[in-house]
Design a protein that fits this description.
This protein has 380 residues and is α/β, with parallel strands linked by helices. Helices cover 44% and strands 9% of the residues. The radius of gyration is 23 Å and the shape is elongated. The chain starts with a helix and ends in a 20-residue tail after the last helix. It holds the Pfam family MMR_HSR1. One of its GO terms (biological process) is mitochondrial translation. Keywords: GTP-binding, Hydrolase, Mitochondrion, Nucleotide-binding, Transit peptide.
């Protein structure tokens, strides 16, 4: 990312203490401290650890405090939400982890075939101990909102068919506290997924490190949803997202959409108002066709608005003042594109929330926010 953007994040996003109200951000509330201690205790008992990370931020979503303990364990890094991550770069990340002899599997926790590939690797890595241990413990760890529980639910659903020999799943796979295991208390939920040998999967609370190493890492975590929007502030996260899109020239790739709109190929008079919450996964019927078309039109409006502002931008992307002016202009066109009333109170917050929802649900395409580190100096 350009130096100008880094300066903007330090100046515009950092001087106020990184959170919307200023002051020290409460990244690490008391329950996280207790959960971290409990996770460390359980890690000593684990036969294998599945470390779930967000595929959009493979490095930023790692809990660095736990890494020293994880290094000495059988471990699989599961890069979840691969459907939201750029597939053209994903192979570079698996190569990066492979360079450090670390097993890594990009997954979609809601896809049966994807989770089965992960379980195949888990089975392979447990093969040695399965034959001699009556009870095995697999721990699932990760920062908040990377999809740990979704993964465990998928494992529940497919364990019986995936491992007919080892994983004889009980008829009723109810969520259970793992009481019989040494040292396991009620703050970490356990699931018995097999017997002969008995295999337990522990779903641990999502915990962050006590201090985020830098502002950009914190903003990436916030953009991915691992930190509550209300803590950092939706507007601040949206500013960061715009800085990322501008620096990568992403809106310029949407020129074809702008041209199509100008040609009148994507216009519709039959537009209705629908809530962007319809994009979020819920246990209900999907939006009807007119709602889907409305969302598609809305996304196109946003993309065309950002294309126009960036294509007409003649400033220096490395200059923090120029970038700030561009982002301010983009907030104005986004308000119009998202149909937020001009004089509405909290208009900036409403624009930010809708803009972030579109990004997080993949409507602007797949992204990976972290850069792949250089591994040329790593000894194979």
């Amino acid at each position: 990312m350009g130096r100008g953007v880094a300066r903007i994040m330090k100046k515009g996003l950092g001087e106020m203490g990184f959170n919307k109200g200023g002051g020290t951000i409460n990244w690490f509330p008391g329950h996280m401290a207790a959960a971290t201690r409990a996770i460390r205790d359980r890690l000593k008992l684990a036969d294998l650890v599945i470390e779930v990370r967000d595929a959009r931020i493979p490095l930023s979503s790692a809990n660095q405090d736990l890494q020293p303990m994880l290094t000495g364990k059988r471990r699989v890094v599961a890069l979840n939400k691969r459907d939201l991550a750029n597939p053209n770069i994903m192979h570079k990340w698996t190569h990066y982890f492979g360079t450090y002899k670390q097993d890594c599997v990009p997954i979609n926790a809601h896809s049966k075939s994807s989770v089965m590939k992960l379980l195949e690797l888990v089975e392979f890595k447990l093969k040695e101990v399965i034959s001699r241990e009556p009870t095995l413990l697999v721990m699932v760890v990760g920062v908040p909102n990377v999809g740990k529980s979704a993964l465990i639910n998928s494992i529940h659903q497919i364990a019986s068919s995936r491992f007919p020999g080892y994983f004889l799943v009980q008829e009723k796979m109810k969520r259970a506290r793992v009481g019989p295991l040494p040292g396991v208390t009620q703050d970490i939920a356990g699931y018995k997924i097999a017997h002969q040998p008995s295999i337990y999967v522990l779903d641990t609370p999502g915990v962050l490190v006590p201090s985020i190493p830098d502002i950009e890492t914190g903003l990436k975590l916030a953009l991915a949803g691992s930190v509550k929007d209300s803590v950092v502030g939706e507007e601040r996260i949206a500013q960061y997202l715009l800085a990322v899109l501008n620096t990568r020239s992403t809106p310029l790739h949407w020129r074809h959409l702008y041209n199509r709109r100008m040609e009148g190929l994507n216009k519709s008079d039959d537009r209705h108002e629908y809530n962007l919450k319809d994009l979020l996964p819920k246990r209900r019927k999907p939006p009807n066709d007119s709602a889907v078309h409305y969302i598609e039109d809305l996304v196109t409006e946003v993309q065309c608005a950002l294309y126009t502002t960036l294509s007409e931008f003649h400033g220096n992307m490395e200059d923090e003042s120029d970038m700030e002016c561009l982002i301010e202009q983009q907030f104005e066109v986004l308000q119009k594109a998202l149909k937020i009333p001009h004089k509405a109170s909290e208009a900036r917050t409403m624009v930010s929330k809708k803009f972030l929802t579109l990004f997080r649900t993949g409507k602007f395409g797949p992204f990976i926010l972290d850069d792949v580190p250089d591994t040329s100096s790593v000894v194979q």
